[in-house]
TrEMBL record:
Keywords: Lyase, Pyridoxal phosphate. It comes from Zymomonas mobilis. It catalyses: L-serine = pyruvate + NH4(+). Belongs to the serine/threonine dehydratase family. CDD domains: ACT_ThrD-II-like, Thr-dehyd. One of its GO terms (molecular function) is L-serine ammonia-lyase activity. NCBIfam families: ilvA_1Cterm (TIGR01127), PRK07334.1 (NF005600). InterPro entries: ACT-like_dom_sf, ACT_dom, ACT_ThrD-II-like, Ser/Thr_Dehydratase, Thr_deHydtase_catblc, TrpB-like_PALP, TrpB-like_PALP_sf. Its cofactor is pyridoxal 5'-phosphate. It holds the Pfam family PALP. This is Threonine dehydratase. The keyword Protease does not apply. The keyword Lyase applies. SUPFAM superfamilies: ACT-like (SSF55021), Tryptophan synthase beta subunit-like PLP-dependent enzymes (SSF53686).
Length: 412
């Protein structure tokens, strides 16, 4: 897939990315690149982490947005810019536009969560709510750009944006020169385009692997000639793009070695591991790189792998759900349906089994009506905490040995 025969045909060079870094470096955070001993042992590869969730708006998108704003002439700055976004691009553009006194208008779908609307407005942007879907918002933003003579700032299909995003890899390789493989989240393709230019022009060219959500395999389809469906509620909404950029596809075709699809389960597991091991919060898209390592461990054995925590903007309730679901999958949180007689003292006897097995009961709910059990029977759904899968198995066996029918309610 890699073709460097005509690199001059790509509109962003390594020099462009170096110039972008000089332009933006005093206004963005040089986030750390750190080695994770625990994740390295888990994966069987050296794992290096770039913490872009430490940016002020908690995402790498600031880099490209700022580089684009600084490239505008005086007239364009005075008129202002416009974008269609409900996520990190909106906040990065709004924040740096406010800093530079450049008017920013953001068009968002009408059902954008209020917290995202208010966060973007809090950075000084004018918010226009339009359209049920993002494509409608995008079309309206382009109409307003033409009508009001505003500069439209695309989230990924723009050379200045790509150059700004490439500064992530520039810093990573300066701070961790041992890296020989980059794993980069892929949505529209702006981040992997810029990073691949840096990677393939280093002293020893690196492998570049894209990590794409399995529910939105748009770049994967394009590169591999597939026609997998795109759609669904992915945890990685930041890379849930149905059509990759026309410009970014050229970079991926020329410079990227492979695109790997990451299941929702592995994105969730990766996010949970990051919270538990690295003690930092990332969004679903930010966990996609580690998710790719979990999905395809054989691909990275013995390599020195750099992954990017591209953003940390996640709803706290959603984060809590992900953590609890991961506990359930690992056997540390379980729901057991226990069948028993509807007689006094039955719950006490069941609870004694939990006590003897040192399993903590979290919650109990009864069902007497909506059940196929005899009228004198009932079932209790008992949510409990155990140490691990082995402990949970011992608990279930102990309940069965005591004469109770037990069904494990499997997590999704």
């Amino acid at each position: 897939m890699v073709s460097l025969d005509n690199p001059e045909t790509l509109p962003v060079s390594l020099d462009d990315i170096k110039c972008a870094h000089q332009r933006i470096k005093n206004a963005i955070i040089r986030t750390p690149t750190l080695y994770s001993r625990t994740l390295s042992d888990l994966i069987g590869a050296g794992v290096w982490l770039k913490f872009e969730n430490f940016q002020f708006t908690a995402a790498y998108k600031e880099r490209g947005a700022l580089n684009k704003l600084l490239s505008l002439d005086k007239v364009a700055r005075e008129r202002g810019v416009i974008a269609a976004s409900a996520g990190n691009h909106a906040q990065g553009l709004a924040y740096h536009g406010n800093r530079l006194d450049i008017p920013v208008t953001i068009v968002m779908p009408v059902h954008t969560p209020t917290v995202k609307v208010e966060q973007t407005r809090g950075h000084g942007a004018k918010i226009v709510l339009y359209g049920e879907q993002f494509d409608e918002s995008l079309a309206h933003a382009l109409e307003l750009a033409e009508k009001d003579q505003l500069t439209f700032v695309h989230p990924f299909n723009d050379p200045a944006i790509i150059a700004g995003q490439g500064t992530v890899a520039l810093e990573m390789l300066e701070d961790a020169p041992a890296i020989d493989t980059l794993v980069v989240p892929v949505g529209g393709g702006g981040l992997i385009s810029g990073c691949s230019v840096v990677a393939k022009n280093s002293d020893r060219p690196l492998d570049v692997i894209g990590a794409e959500a399995e529910l939105y395999p748009s770049m994967y389809n394009y590169i591999k000639g597939k026609d997998l469906p795109c759609g669904g509620d992915t945890l990685a909404e930041g890379i849930a793009v149905q059509t990759p950029g026309i410009l970014t596809r050229r970079f991926v075709e020329a410079l990227v070695d492979d695109i790997l699809l990451v299941s929702e389960t592995n994105i969730e597991h990766a996010l949970s591991l990051i919270v538990q091991i690295e003690k930092t919060i990332v969004e679903g898209a930010g966990a996609a790189g580690l998710g790719a390592l979990l999905s395809h461990p054989e691909r990275f054995q013995g390599r020195q792998v750099g992954i990017i925590f591209s953003g940390g903007n996640i709803d706290t309730r959603l984060l809590a759900n992900v953590m609890l679901r991961d506990l359930a999958r690992s056997g540390r949180l379980a729901r057991l349906r226990v069948r028993m007689k509807d007689q006094a003292g039955q719950l006490y006897k069941v609870a004694r089994v939990f006590h003897d097995q040192q399993a903590n009961i979290v919650e109990i709910s009864y069902q007497r009506i909506f059940t196929t059990l005899p009228a004198k029977g009932l079932c209790a759904d008992i949510e409990c905490e155990t140490r691990d899968q082995t402990h949970l198995t011992h608990l279930i066996n102990a309940l069965r040995e005591a004469g109770y029918g037990v069904t494990l309610i499997e997590p999704a």
